[in-house]
Structure formats: structure tokens, C-alpha cells
Design goal:
nine-stranded mixed beta sheet, mainly beta, 14 strands, Immunoglobulin-like
């Protein structure tokens, strides 16, 4: 099981400047580079940094890949069919977890439950609280071939954990995983930060989450 120490940001700002790279330079980068399923060998270059504050979680992905696609523009749509990065996280250790899934233009799918089935989706009011900035912009992108490098930065306020009342994660260790996928891309791919040992791609497996220690 992998482990990350999540730095604490000493700031009273509701969100750092999501469009700036300056705050991220000093934060460690973590690789999303595990190919768990040999039927899908393609591995884009993906890394992320994560931090937290009194208000919520900051997360930034850097992606370099062959081809791009951002067709889904409505929140809670099937963003995983596009070029997509994800955070799955169980903030309380009770076996339930949230799936934060973002396509390359920042469209968000957010659900909650104990497994892949019967997940409860967040309301639009909750979704709107999750701030997002994509270096590609937030407008629809048709499927395009070629080499693309893009970044996605998000701020997840604690209110986004809509089935919990979280005031702080300081000093807590929780479990989660980070993923990159593209189910309907020309070359489908499924890579993860922490290893998943299943016969076929399945990110909804909390038994394979790694540890996140919030400093």
C-alpha cells in the first residue's frame, strides 16, 4: 500500500489561485503510473500534487498523452469516457467513499457509496462548490489526435463531502486512490497511483486504496 503525506497550507484564503503554478512548485509530485491490466498497456504521463487547508483539499494533475477528448459538459455525466483524472477517497474510514472524476475541461462527476452500485450523486449545488481550472479551458473539445500536455487544478471544499460533516482533516489518515482513464478514447487506458488487483478495470475497489496522511 502506498502512502502520501498531504501538506497543510497555512492560509486563510478560501482558495489559492488555481490558474497559477507558483504555489505548487514546492509541493511533492506523485506518479499515476501503474498499469494494472495488460489488455490496456497504454500509459500516459500523469502526476499530481495534493495539499489541504482549513477549508478543503487542493489537487493538481499534470497530464501528457496521445490525443485529447472533452465531450461531456454537464456535471455528473460520463466524464470517464473522455480524457479523465480522478480522486476516490474515504474520509472517515467507514467503508464509504466519494468519487471525484474530472474530464480534461473540468466537468465533474461526484458520487458516494460503498461500491460501484447504487451510488448517490451530488446535487448541482454541491458540484458548483468544487472550483476547477483547466489549462485547456472549460469549453467542449472534440476528439483530437496528437500530443497534448494539460493541467487540471481543483479545490474541493469540505462541503463537497455531502454525506459527512468535516471541519478539518489535520492529523488524520484516510484512504483513497488517484486514477487516469479514457474509456472511449482511441486508445482506452486505465492507470492508477495505488495498485488494483482485479481481473478487469475497476476503480471502485476501496480495498485497494492507499493511505493519505493529512499533516
Amino acid at each position: 500500500m502506498k502512502h502520501i503525506d498531504v501538506p497543510f497550507l497555512y492560509s486563510d484564503q478560501p482558495a489559492i489561485d488555481l490558474s497559477s503554478n507558483e504555489q505548487w512548485i514546492i509541493l511533492p509530485k506523485n506518479q499515476v503510473d501503474i498499469v494494472n491490466w495488460l489488455d490496456f498497456p497504454y500509459k500516459p504521463n500523469v502526476c499530481f500534487s495534493i495539499a489541504h487547508s482549513h477549508e478543503g483539499i487542493y489537487l493538481k494533475f499534470w497530464v501528457a498523452e496521445e490525443g485529447i477528448r472533452g465531450l461531456v459538459t454537464d456535471d455528473n455525466g460520463n466524464v470517464f469516457t473522455d480524457s479523465c483524472v480522478e480522486l476516490f477517497i474515504d474520509p472517515s474510514g467507514d467503508g464509504s467513499y466519494y468519487n471525484f472524476e474530472f474530464n480534461c475541461i473540468g466537468t465533474l462527476l461526484l458520487g458516494y457509496g460503498t461500491s460501484r452500485h447504487h451510488r448517490e450523486k451530488a446535487s448541482q449545488e454541491i458540484l458548483d462548490k468544487v472550483l476547477r481550472y483547466s489549462s485547456l479551458g472549460l469549453k467542449q473539445i472534440e476528439q483530437v489526435k496528437g500530443w497534448f500536455e494539460w493541467e487540471l487544478t481543483v479545490f474541493i471544499p469540505f462541503d463537497a463531502f455531502f454525506k459527512h460533516h468535516i471541519e478539518s482533516l489535520r492529523g488524520k489518515t484516510v484512504v483513497g486512490n488517484f486514477q487516469k482513464c479514457g474509456d472511449d478514447m482511441p486508445v482506452p487506458h486505465f492507470i492508477t497511483w495505488n495498485e488494483i488487483n482485479t481481473p478487469k478495470p475497476d476503480y471502485h475497489r476501496p480495498e485497494f486504496f492507499g493511505e493519505l496522511h493529512f499533516e
